[in-house]
Amino acid sequence: MENITENLADKLKEYAINGDYPFHMPGHKRAPLDSFLNNAYRMDITEISGFDDLHHAEGVIQSEQNVCAQLYHSESAHFLINGSTCGILAAISAVSSWATLKDTLLMCSNAHKSVYHAVQICRLKTMFLDPEETSIPSLYAQIEPKQVQRILEQSFDKIVGVVITSPTYEGVLSNVEEIAKICHLYKIPLIVDSAHGAHLGISTYFPKSAIEQGADIVITSLHKTTLSLTQTALLLTNYGLDEGLMEYLQYYLTVYQSSSPSYILLYSISRCVELLRLSGEQRLNELRMALSNFYAKVSLLKKLKVLTKEDFETTFDDSKIIISTKHANIKSQELFDRLREEYHLVLELVSIEHVVAIVTMMDSGKALDGLANALITIDSELDYTLDQGNLSSYNRKREFAKTIFEALNDEREELLLKHALGRVSAQYLYLYPPGIPLVIPGEVIHSDLLEIVNCYQINGLSVLGPASKESNYIKVLCETKLT
Amino acid sequence: MENITENLADKLKEYAINGDYPFHMPGHKRAPLDSFLNNAYRMDITEISGFDDLHHAEGVIQSEQNVCAQLYHSESAHFLINGSTCGILAAISAVSSWATLKDTLLMCSNAHKSVYHAVQICRLKTMFLDPEETSIPSLYAQIEPKQVQRILEQSFDKIVGVVITSPTYEGVLSNVEEIAKICHLYKIPLIVDSAHGAHLGISTYFPKSAIEQGADIVITSLHKTTLSLTQTALLLTNYGLDEGLMEYLQYYLTVYQSSSPSYILLYSISRCVELLRLSGEQRLNELRMALSNFYAKVSLLKKLKVLTKEDFETTFDDSKIIISTKHANIKSQELFDRLREEYHLVLELVSIEHVVAIVTMMDSGKALDGLANALITIDSELDYTLDQGNLSSYNRKREFAKTIFEALNDEREELLLKHALGRVSAQYLYLYPPGIPLVIPGEVIHSDLLEIVNCYQINGLSVLGPASKESNYIKVLCETKLT
């Protein structure tokens, strides 16, 4: 056979000795946490006697899940080896089976694509909660409890469950406590996608977790902000969850996860929970000190701006460092690239007018000093500009002609995006990260979508579709043009 | 917090230095294949620039998938990090969306539970293909092409796709070539669950693979019989697959897999494909020699019997070593335990009248000699018995009152299994391994089910239900008793 020019395994080996500093996921920051994995193949076992079965846990896995539940103040914890993705699919499938006579999910419009996927699989209708705006047009903020109240008042008899994201990718938290109270008045379960909040609930120096605030089902990614390997997550349930709903949850976790779960991933969850239990609070308290120093330093920036709690009308988890380029004569992509190339600091995300660094308990004060100093130096070389004249908001009201399920199963054709105005989308378009769809199947394509896609593209951000990688094209339903 | 008495991580570390020999999965047999994983946390990255994106592969991952497709004689290969499970879910969801006006899956009744889960998610009706019987009552054999022909003739206009398992857990292959031809006459896609056949298609000393025989979509577990880490698998598609169906496949692979795929799992796939490409054929040719010696030796057994190709009316992959206890005065569980305790040989599976050892290219002639010698010694201490008087067959005709989807979403109550005769099941019951359901939601409970469950239980095999671990109980639908 021919020679392979590129090989993933070799590239990964090479990258392991690369000196870039990761201000991005995973949260363990590639530190040699444990020499266990020196022996990975040796420990990559199957369900042999004594090692329990993730899908019917009653031995060592169950006893660790109990310890984990206690750590996170939840009634139960389920280890996930297919990421938060499978937890989201399982939670929505479960409420949908449980409330079988209802047909609508009330969800935040800035949900991760897995929420939309679950809606499609479960053939649900949707009602949307739109996040509040911030000073940065592409940065979504919190869901207001009064919005939830208004919709449930009118439509509680149709709604299988409520799904919100808190914290968001950028660390913005909603008032889960109030929202949970409203949901419980109507006996509707509240599911919170806390993929970015696995470090919450451990130290009082950081915001309360969604479980502590009364959410019924919480999904959280251990790898994003704590110490486990990528693709590991938790599904947590709160006290008093209906038993029938719990049975559906357990069933669907079996459906959406491999029947041959990786003991290497389970190992890393086990070790992560132990480290959090023994030293998580102390590590997070130290991180609070380091963050305080960092935010004091960067308050001196003149053109770049690091957002602080004062910039939000809601709780903000400032272990997400959001750097705005709105009033500096530098594009966000250029800032990202300069930090990487000149300072070997690799950030997590670039958006239109901001970049994000993810900081975890594995980051030292020294690393944060390095980031602060780099920002101060770059800032000193920039000029102040007025707003760069992008859109005032990337928030869109979605209008639907079909459910996601219907639209995915209908006849479709491919058009140039600019010719698709007024047509019904038969596909998703999204940025990754963060993986929040810009348009979803069944949605009517309005001009604001075209403007937003255009804005991302001229800023060098790639908008991803499904099979076709040509993001200038979109699949739409074959039918007479809607207006 | 309290001390934990058991900790999975520590147990795994301990097991890594245990001296038991694994005649079970994973196929890498816990050999230190690669020192890479010494550095696992260091290489556990996210989709940083240059490392491609599993869900939109166009760089290094795509180039490796192409190499893998070539190795397996398929048109495309997709790396899976949520096991064969996600490949099965994606394949059935895809044919179901693609053939949206049809509503029935034609499937083998000995399918893995993930096939039944897909049926439920996609709200499909089912028609069943029953495997032929063998001399061992609990051992399923092949699906006959004429059965497929008979059903498609009558019902082709309802059927979204055909799903069979080949090879089975025990290495029995169906005539996929004939079955594929029949399916193609009716333009119906053939999906083959080849989870246990990732070593096929590489050496001519072993049976042909399902792809080589013309199946349209094949799912295979790399970790079961080749060299990758547990939870890794491939979805392969054959030449000429409809483009629309391919798009649905790609979409559903995104749905059922974590949006944060593990680069450690991807690394192990990359390394596995490379090893198979460079030395797979040679390793398998050597295994053929070792197996020939093994089968010659064990042909001398008097009471135990190791099944050979002559025991099947179809192709048999003899890298699965099936040891029958049917005519020996030893129970299969006792044989399994003696091999483990006295010889440190750990086999894969115990059934009522047989045990199974899984042999891969990582097993040496010496290891096989050890197994042969142990069997010869044990055999010399046993007496010949007549058939132990279990059931004559574990094959059951399933009768349905509801679809799986309907039954899972209906009102249910819990009964003692023995009181559930004539009722409609609202749950699954299965043995794991192999994870083939004994009863599924919507199925009418007949006396043969009770006999089979009883038989497994008196033989010390545990029958698993979903939430309730009490396998004497079963959830049934709340309605008037059917007869």
* Chain pair forming the biggest interface: A-B, 104 and 104 residues
Biggest β-sheet: strands ordered side by side in the sheet of chain A: 2-8-7-6-5-3-4
Strand element count of chain A: 18
Average pLDDT figure of chain A: 91
Oligomer state of the chains in this structure? homodimer
The largest sheet of chain A, given as strand count, sense and whether it forms a barrel, is: 7 strands, mixed
Work out the helix count of chain A: 14
Find the structural class of chain A using helix and strand composition.
Answer: alpha/beta
Radius of gyration of chain A: 23 Å
Which percent range describes the beta-strand content of chain A? 15-25%
State the separation between the terminal residues of chain A, measured CA to CA.
55 Å
Helix content of chain A: 25-40%
**Shape, per Cα inertia axes of chain A:** globular
Which residues of chain A sit in consecutive blocks of at least 5 with pLDDT less than 50?
Answer: none
General description of the model:
The structure is a homodimer of 483-residue chains. By secondary structure, chain A is α/β, with parallel strands linked by helices. Chain A is built from 14 helices and 18 strands. Chain A has helices at residues 8-16, 40-43, 60-71, 83-98, 113-121, 145-155, 176-185, 222-225, 243-255, 263-298, 332-343, 365-380, 404-409, 447-458; strands spanning 21-23, 76-80, 104-108, 125-129, 159-165, 190-193, 217-220, 233-237, 305-306, 320-324, 345-347, 349-350, 354-358, 412-416, 429-431, 437-439, 463-464, 473-477. In chain A, strand 5 (159-165), helix 7 and strand 6 (190-193) form a beta-alpha-beta unit. Chain A starts with 7 loop residues before the first helix and ends in a 6-residue tail after the last strand.
